[in-house]
Amino acid sequence: MLRVQRGDSDAFSELLERNHRRVLNLAFRYLRDRAGAEDVVQETFLKLYKARDRYQPNARFSSYLLRIASNICLSRLRRKRPLSLTEDTDGRAVDVSDPNATTGSADMLSEELKARVRAAVDQLPDRQRLAILLNKFEGMDYQQVGEQLGLSPTATKSLLHRARMALKGQLSNYLGRDSG
Amino acid sequence: MNDLDCAATRAELVAFLDGELAGSALNAVERHLSSCSECVAVRDSLDDVWSALDHLPGLEPRPGWLAEVEQATVNSGVPKRGLTVAFPLRRLFVAVAVAACLAIGVGLVFLSSRPPEATDPELVVMGPAPRGPEGSGVDLPPQVTDLPPQVTDLPVAIPAVEQDVPLVADAFSGTDPDPELDGLSDAELEMIAELEVLVLLDELDELEVLEALEFLDDLDEDELSDET
Questions:
Q1: How far apart are CA B92 and CA A40, in angstroms?
Q2: pLDDT of residue B100
Q3: Closest by Cβ to B42, choosing from A45, A46, A179
Q4: Interchain contact B41–A (C-beta under 8 A)
Q5: Which tens digit of pLDDT belongs to each residue from A134-163?
Q6: How far apart, in Å, are the Cα atoms of B78 and each of A4, A48, B70, B83, B133?
Q7: Does the beta carbon of B70 lie under 8 angstroms from any beta carbon of chain A?
Q8: Exposure string over B117-145, b if 16+ CB within 10 A, otherwise e
Q9: pTM flag (> 0.90)
Q10: Residues of chain A contacting residue B48, judged by C-beta atoms under 8 Å apart
């Protein structure tokens, strides 16, 4: 990023090449929409490029980049909810799947598992979902997730706990372990 | 930390699995788990769910898409450069617009300052356009025939001036009718309206109208007197 600041034209290409997949996947897992995810990548790198003169190397670049992407994802969802969600009148997601349903073949089971995981993640509130994605797929610890979302460590811990318990409530029956 | 009950342990299980506990908190959870099969089951269930998230599909970029992103991003950075190019053009446009307004204004003042004179049929260049009331015949000098051909080759039937038809000056400035137009004769208003009609019909562009008005403006009053 410092090379980009200095006007190195190749540096931005390298930056994009190295980081576009993680932004694309974060956005896709969050939005579940390829076009939307591609838009997020473009918007993220556009903001990064425009703000290159103001970049301060006092944080990990990946955190800086993902923070931009996270904010864009959150703001997009404020404008448009995922199509897959069924919501009650309070805007909360309602589970329409049957967690005890089973299928015959292994492939179908795998596909069904993906679909159930996808649905369970989709049903999380926006911040919980983003926190889970950052924690799980970006390997961020609680402090880093908190920095991304502007939350204290305590609030982050609580957010992730609620998110994980919600996922367990959605998936544990299907996964075969039904525990309190 | 004292021994935890099941509720307190479960409240820490996620942090425990995430490796976020240390010291006495970690020890207390581990101690409880060593003696509580129910909490162990909850821990295992949470662990399974965490592993199941691996099934959350990712996305492979489309071929060529990265180049599109790079191009769009870097090109969008051009606005800084683009502004330096756009500014002179914008300034030029503003300058032309101001000059146009000035030229129109001067032309209209000039027209309004001229007293009505008798009509010389040879000098009429506007064709059989409707005439105004008494004493308002078209009385332009011969030089007017040097106007661009679009002006001199007016269509035979040009709509008469109507009170609610916006004038050329208004079309350019986007403002209410200029009160100075009140002093113009009907024939002068007709001429302006005809120019406007030509603009509206795309027969005459704004620059040509400006040329016409500037031409009128450049005419020396003495010269006009000599001709008349």
A1: 38
A2: 81
A3: A179
A4: yes
A5: 999 888 999 999 998 999 999 999 999 999
A6: 15, 14, 13, 8, 60
A7: yes
A8: eebeeebbbbeebebbeeebbbbbbebbe
A9: no
A10: 171-172, 175-177
